[in-house]
Specification:
The structure holds two protein chains of two kinds. By secondary structure, chain A is an alpha/beta fold. In chain A, 29% of the residues lie in helices and 19% in strands. Chain A is globular and about 70 Å long. Chain B contains 22 helices and eleven strands. The longest helix of chain B has 20 residues. The chains are: A alpha/beta, B alpha/beta. The interface between A and B is large, with 50 and 55 residues.
Chain lengths: 434, 458
């Protein structure tokens, strides 16, 4: 008979609670956990990665309004930091951004997902409509679509799958002086499905026989194409194997092009990062929308998530808020012009009245002021109200931060990764020892 | 008197679930996580069936919420021109709620689908055979009580190929689906002769659930053993079926009777601050949220019963969190796979059963990455859905076989039966594992697994 041991509540104790499971939250959790903090991630649902391309865009355009995309994010980051000292990248510093980008690359590689590139150079890849899309780290399955190369492309669409208009992609690439033609292939195996969405296709492309069927249909259409671009649905679990298998079958390089959401490469990225966290003992839970918090003086003691019948209390030593901006749901905008932060009611820097949210023209080259709304932070990523720290044990990361205009800058992933990286470290470092 | 966690604020005002459809931004994340759409064309996916089709259904559905622009409110309407739903594919929603859990904007997709199915039932869109079949499957209490006295006969019939073929042919109850077995003494009989130790804490009420009442009494015995060992005085109140099977078959008026029955039987306990604790995650979720939300049952007594209801592991882990108790746990040197059912995840309380099991020394619990076992209550019993349910469950079956322990762990009864059906691995409730770690005598299949692992009986 063994003596019972009193287990206490070690598995119910959280040092760092991360709210949000996008790139910012997952990066923060990785750092906090690596620093030895017992870390937990809770999120309302799955977010931006399911909408984005599955790579890491660090900085695509600077200054804004320039037609020419950034060639080297590292160089442009230095310029951005000088031009906009309150920008999250300026607060982070160029070397920390580089470190964070390299870290996420390693995190993905450790979990079976190859992201190629470095902070010194942007890839130029096709957007889902055939536009030029600068991106710093790209899935290895996409980099064959490098638009700085001149070899002609065959863009292949799949009959029955509406989220990738191959003809439009090729026509847009042609209009930008790139050699591209389009073909659509109609696979018998796909005809058996009435609904072809991205994830169903991705699971089908995990199967070698489907790739063989696709290659048989594509081969007669190859013409003089030196490479083949297909929608980014080439496998969910084994995309790298699927792309290389298709390349072998066709005798030319095959690459993926990002599709309209939902994004299969984004799902792969999300799953790789979650897998890494779960493997290091971090629990990641969705369906937990944080709706309020409990404070004591200038510290947050717990946050509450909505649940069946009653809210759930989550106590922790420190909190990383990475709930996203207006798109992600971390900020709520109201028709009266108010902009509210949802977790701890942190003051938001935003235009004074609703009529100041937007400029007159939809596509005004100066952008719209509401897109720069967000939370201001100190050098330790703690939220500020008129220059004073609001909560001592809270750090903020990602889309919630003020001053970045991530959609136009093509910086959404990079801002999330870099600020998550630093906010997660800061959260772990701020814990009271013992 | 113990009233743990009761200081927590209740959720804010409830609006009808259909009002959440306006939050849908059409991103399609729900479609990527839906286990049913992944394996069948009969269900196009949550986005299309939920927020999109709901927009078409709303103006015509009797009782559906509708915007009353004059008053700026959502109101109920009684006008009804007989035009109900765009198509029947919504009946292929299994109600697993994976969509709700992934939705970044908080659309109550599964609930929208459940109410659409109810509108079809109300509008006589289902034939009488399907209604009869669904009503049979959805009344475990009736079946349990009618079958128990002749349990051996029923067991034999359930295992008889001719009887199953007949049920399949006549009623579309799939001949292969995992029907339960009557085994041993039923829970109520055991409980009547059960002699507890004198309590050292307050009272809790145990909500038995139909599966424990009629088929798996061992789980009730384990639950009561654990609660009593922790010092509680456990009462087993009069109760009836929670009504969830009826809710998921769109039989709302009958479900409402069951839910009201429970509320009236349990409100006295709730008013006295006595927690109502259950081992069936589906029953507890129904009392907490499913019945109130689907039936718009937010009367004060209904809210009070909901707020007093806990999953048993949620309840115990909450006490541990509060420092109210420390668990003294014996080692269990086993590696076991744990599948938290979708109905458990839908409580949105995290994974307290896993938290507790992780406190057991030497016990290695592997967490299932699978979304759903496929059975979804009564779904996988239906001939037209059996193959879908098995395809949905395939990743879970693979996980359970790969882990390869002598038993699998799962909180929900039909999921346990489905796991065993898909893998031949017996399945137990987490509370049985906790009971064993507390040194309480447990029953087969766990007892056998522990003996084989060299764990001495207490």
């Amino acid at each position: 008979m063994t003596t019972p041991t009193s287990a206490g509540s070690r598995h119910r104790t959280t040092d760092v609670l991360v709210v949000g499971a996008g790139l910012a939250g997952l990066s923060a959790a990785r750092q906090a956990s690596a620093a030895g903090a017992r870390t937990r991630v809770i999120a309302k649902g799955w977010g931006a990665q399911y909408w984005l391309s599955g790579g890491i865009g660090v900085l695509g355009y600077h200054p804004l309004g320039q037609a020419q995309p950034v060639a080297s994010p590292a160089d442009a980051l230095a310029a951005l930091a000088a031009d906009q000292p309150r920008h999250p990248y300026a607060l982070a510093g160029v070397s920390a951004v580089a470190e964070a980008v390299s870290d996420i690359q390693h995190a993905c590689a450790d979990n079976g997902l190859a992201l190629e590139g470095s902070i010194d150079r942007n890839w130029l890849l096709s957007s889902p409509l055939g536009g030029r899309r600068p991106i710093c780290l790209a899935p290895s399955t996409m980099t064959g679509g490098d638009l700085t190369r001149r070899d002609p492309m065959l863009i292949v669409g799949l009959t029955g799958y509406p989220d990738f208009p191959a003809g439009l992609v090729a026509a847009n690439l042609e209009a930008q002086d790139m050699a591209a033609t389009a073909a659509e292939v109609d696979l018998v195996s796909f005809r058996q499905r009435r609904f072809l969405n991205a994830t169903v296709l991705a699971s089908l492309f995990d199967l070698p026989e489907i790739r063989e069927e696709a290659a048989r249909a594509i081969r007669p259409r190859l013409g003089s194409a030196g490479r083949v671009g297909m929608p980014a649905v080439l496998g969910m679990e084994s995309s790298e194997e699927a792309v290389s298998h298709l390349s072998d079958l066709l005798g030319v390089e095959v690459f993926e092009i990002a599709t309209a959401p939902p994004s299969v490469p984004g799902i792969r990225l999300h799953r790789a990062l979650v897998r890494g966290l779960v493997g290091s003992g971090v629990r990641v839970s969705s369906g937990m929308q944080v709706v309020g918090s409990e404070s004591n003086g200038s510290t947050i003691e717990a946050v509450y998530s909505e649940a069946a019948a009653r809210r759930v209390r989550h106590a922790a030593g420190s909190f990383v808020i990475a709930t996203g901006g207006i798109l992600g749901g971390g900020l709520i905008t109201d028709e009266d012009g108010s902009v509210t932060e949802v977790v701890a009611d942190i003051p938001v820097k935003s235009p004074a009245t609703r009529s100041d949210w937007f400029r007159r023209e939809v596509l005004d080259s100066a952008g719209h002021p509401i897109y720069r709304a967000g939370i201001e932070v100190d050098s330790g990523w703690r939220p500020l109200d008129s220059g004073k720290v609001v909560w001592e044990n809270v750090t903020v990361a990602g889309g919630l931060l003020a001053e970045a205009e991530t959609i136009r800058e093509h910086s959404m992933d990079g801002v999330a990764v870099a600020t998550g990286f630093l906010a997660g470290r800061a959260a772990a470092a701020s814990l009271v020892p013992g | 008197m113990t009233a743990p966690l009761s200081a927590q604020a209740p959720n804010p005002v409830h609006l009808p679930v259909e009002t959440t459809l306006d939050r849908c931004i059409k991103c399609g994340i729900c479609v990527t996580v839906c286990p049913v759409a992944a394996v069948t064309d009969r269900f196009p996916g949550p986005k299309y069936e939920g927020p999109q089709a709901a927009r078409l259904r709303q103006p015509w559905r009797a009782g559906a919420p509708r915007a009353d622009l004059d008053n700026g409110l959502w109101v109920r309407t009684d006008d009804h021109d007989g035009h109900l739903v765009p198509d029947h594919s919504v009946d292929y929603c299994s109600g697993c709620r994976a969509c709700n859990m992934a939705c970044p904007t908080g659309v109550r997709i599964a609930e929208i689908n459940a109410r659409a199915r109810a509108a079809m039932v109300e509008g006589a869109e289902f034939g009488w055979r399907k209604r009869l079949r669904n009503n049979l499957l959805a009344r475990p209490e009736l079946l349990g009580s009618a079958g128990y006295p002749v349990g051996r006969l029923v067991n034999a019939a359930f295992e008889n190929r001719f009887a199953r073929a007949l049920a399949d042919g006549l009623l579309d109850i799939d001949r292969r689906a995992p029907l339960p077995r009557y085994q041993g003494e039923r829970f109520a009989a055991w409980h009547r002769r059960h002699k507890p130790e004198p309590p050292t804490r307050g009272r809790v009420a145990y909500f038995t659930g139909c599966a424990t009442a009629w088929y798996e009494a061992r789980i009730g015995r384990a639950a009561i053993g654990v609660l009593e060992r922790l010092g509680f005085k456990v009462v087993v109140p009069e109760q009836n079926c929670c009504g969830l099977p009826l809710l998921s078959n769109g039989e709302f008026p009958a479900a409402r009777k069951y839910h009201r029955g429970n509320v009236e039987k349990l409100i006295g306990l709730a008013e006295r601050g006595i927690p109502i604790v259950g081992t069936s995650t589906s029953c507890t979720l129904t009392l907490k949220e499913e019945a109130p939300e689907l039936l718009d049952a937010f009367a004060p007594d209904e809210n009070a019963v909901a707020a007093a209801t806990y999953d048993i592991c949620e309840f115990i882990a909450g006490l541990v969190d509060q420092g109210d108790l420390a668990l003294d746990l014996l080692p269990i040197p086993l590696r076991l796979g744990y599948h938290p059912p979708c109905q458990y995840r839908a409580h949105r309380i995290g994974l307290p059963a896993l938290d507790l099991m992780e406190m057991v020394p030497d016990l290695q619990v592997e967490l299932s990455p699978a979304t759903c076992c496929g059975i979804a209550g009564t779904y996988g019993y239906k001939s037209e859905k059996y193959d879908i349910a098995m395809a949905v469950g395939a990743p879970l079956f693979k996980f359970v076989k790969d882990v390869g322990g002598p038993v699998a762990i799962c909180d929900s009864e039909t999921c346990r039966w489905q796991i065993t059906h898909g893998t031949d691995v017996p399945a137990v409730h987490p509370i049985e594992v906790i009971a064993a770690a507390m040194g309480l005598a447990v029953e087969d299949p766990l007892a056998g697994a522990l003996r084989a692992a060299g764990v001495a009986e207490a």
